[in-house]
Automatic annotation (TrEMBL):
Identification of the protein by name: Transglutaminase-like domain-containing protein
Pfam families in alphabetical order: TPR_9, Transglut_core2
Domain Protein SirB1 N-terminal: 54-199
Family indicated by similarity: Belongs to the UPF0162 family.
Amino acid sequence: MRPPNPPSPERSAELRRRFAEEARGERPDLSLLCLLLGAEADGGLDEPGIDAAQMELDRLAGLVPFRPGGPMSWATALHHLLGAREGFRGSPADYQRLESSLLHEVLRRRRGLPILLSVVWMEVARRAGAPVYGVALPGHFVVGFGPQEQQVLADPFDGGRVLSGGDAEMLVAGATGTPLHPSMLSPADPLDVVLRILNNVRAWAAARPERSDVGLWAVELSLLLPSHPARLRYERAQLLVQRGDFLTGAAELDAYAEVVAAVDEPAAERVRRQADSARAMLN
């Protein structure tokens, strides 16, 4: 996907300001963060488009039948509404599309990656009053309903199919080759969800060197989150050099080397040499 009109520098700066502000708020709004991310990817997503996506989530929540029962009732209701009736689900081909990581496109296409479909499930269920949260299983994101002792898991990528304990164990074993540990079933923090989405975007771009522009904005949004891996600064520097911004990239490499030097001087020296090489490209 190449957006027909990438956001202007002024629009991008405003989106990033709002993204950082929301991420640092007391209760970050997951859907808004995902939509601001989408607007950074797609300059065609303007403010009315962001509002329309939020209204679609509200509309879907209004279709959830009142369920006075427990977690299984909620999981079943969301499966029938979002999976069976509205057609939200995923397929292997969705892993090859950038749109599969953009909430507004997932709402339009009814297709996406497991984590984005889980965002739809979470945001619709939350608006309807369900005890819902994301569960970041290794390699496959799902949603959970209810407290851990009564937890019911559902897989939005498979239309919201309710998972048995054995199903969850198979998902983890297939992704990691290791057993399911109870800690893997804990609710995911909204900002961790956003970082994981950005990681997916970065991975998509890394497999397509011609789309280093996508990799760069994904790294830069990740750096706006209150907590992020320090190595992202190194990745940003490499992308700047790759895109021909040698001086800025070299300065970023030098700054990263200073951070690394406190714990690993040989590694810091290797980064400094990379900075020298980047500056030499100007000659």
